Amino acid sequence: MGASTGDFSRGRVSTTILKLGLPMMLAEFVHVLYSIVDRMYIGHMAEGGTLALTGLGICFPLITLIGAFANLFSTGGATLMTIARGSGDNRKAERIMGTSFTMLMITGGVLTVLLFGFAPGLLRLLGGDAETLPAALSYFRIYVIGTIPVLIGLGMNPFISAQGFPRVGMMTVIIGAALNILLDPLMIYQMGMGVRGAALATVLSQLAGAAWAMAFLCGRRAVIRLTGFHLDRTELKGIIRLGVTGFTFKVTNSLTQAIVNVMLKAWGGSMSTLYVGAMSLINSIREIMSLPNNGIVQGGQSVMSYNYGAKLYRRVSQSIRFTFLSGLGINLAMWALVMFAPRPVIGLFTADEQLIALTADCARIFFGVFPFMALQQTGQSTFVALNYPRYALFFSLLRKIVLVAPLTLALPGLGLGVNGVFWAELISQLTGATACFVTMSLVIWRPMNQAAQEGAA
User: Which domain holds residue 413?
Assistant: First the structure.
């Protein structure tokens, strides 16, 4: 009953997390279909499919940047709203959600104007050349027009799930993805629009998903209703302080993607375009591999926040344990698939045998220690859920800025050549994830267990 009524303090912790996490997992999977379906259809175009796929890969850093602003206001906002609900302060929860929504709208308008105007120069900086820039620019400029619905769909959906309505949140994404799957072949092939058709289909689909989310949050079923524009400066500070972790993760991911593209162009020689295409496919595979655990992590985060607000520390500790163990099992299964049978997955995106073979080899390096990411995901989500923004921000910066970026720049010149770009990710996953989890255990998990034992006594 707990999850279905928005009260996460009742019932088995594992059951509550799964009731929240499984719909979120499906929603994550369907959301990724937005971009993956685009890549699948584009990669299989009769003429120029591989080149167009590479052009789309050049857009990834900027698309990731747009998503970062959704994280800035949703991660902190949804977490603080859940803590407020757990402590019984629904008015504060409403102020937090209204402030997050207002900032998403303002930010979306500003990003639309800036990114549309500066798109050519930005895409050149990210590795676009005479071959790949036309496709990249055609896709990205249309995608940018949909920035506001992208931010509303991504940014407000966590507020639905955090209120105990994960199935409604799942429908936000399913509506858009289903529409995207229907529109993609129509616009890409039958209407002859190519990459522009893929971008337009995505924009229309995201608009439909955002409309569904808004209809629910403004309706009677919502526990915390969205009543319009509202900007509370006090609440905004807390939202940004906590949300900057998810924002930084996305921004640094965008930065490292840009560095990776540049290094692949520099060290890939005559195969540089193929290497950028391979990295585009690896990013697609990473999204698929991260999906199952992302749902569990999001569900666990909501349960942690609510029970932390209610001072039920034993349930918080149980949530951490379940999130970690389930994530480790899921990541091991995903790792085995990529290590031993990567070609069928890669073949979903392209029929180019040379590109498939290259991607399979690079993926085995890139995902070599992927199970360790369960440590990073558990540690990071716990820091965010319990409002430890400094730790969350530090470990987000550690893996991407301190480890991945310098290693990507250094390893190719230290004898590894172009493969050094992929080894950089492996090393950062191993060291950064371990450091994050160990710190979380010492700073939060052990004291939380002690508090739970003292409370029971």
Answer: 2-456
